[in-house]
Description:
- By secondary structure, this protein is an alpha+beta fold.
- It has one domain (2-93): Alpha-Beta Plaits, CATH 3.30.70.100.
- It is 36% helix and 28% strand.
- Strands 1, 2, 3, 4 and 5 form a five-stranded antiparallel sheet that branches.
- The protein starts with a strand and ends in a 7-residue tail after the last strand.
- The model has no long low-confidence stretch (mean pLDDT 96).
Amino acid sequence: MKRMGMVIRLKTDKIQEYKRLHADVWPDVLKTIAKANIKNYTIFLREPENLLFGYWEYHGIDFKADSAKIAADPRTQEWWKITDSLQIRMESSKANEQWSIMEEVFHTD
C-alpha cells in the first residue's frame, strides 16, 4: 500500500458548491475510484487559505495504469469538468497536473 497526498486551491466563491458536491459524490465516480485500487480517499479544506488537501491509499501495483483508467472514465470526466472549474491550480503545478502530488516525508502508525 502506498499513501498519497495532493494539494490544490479552491475558489473563494465556490466553497459551498464544492462542499455540496462532495456531500453527494456520484456513485459512478466512487466505483471508478474503487476499481482503480484507491481506498481511504479523503479531502480536507483549510480556510481562509482555501487550500484543499487530498489523501488516499493506493493498493494496486500499477498506479499509472489505474490513473489512466480513472481519466478515461466518461462519468469521471463529467465530474472533473464541474469540480476543476471550482479549483485554482498551484503555481508550481506541472502542465498536465490539476492537483499537485506531494512527497511523503513522514509517517507513523
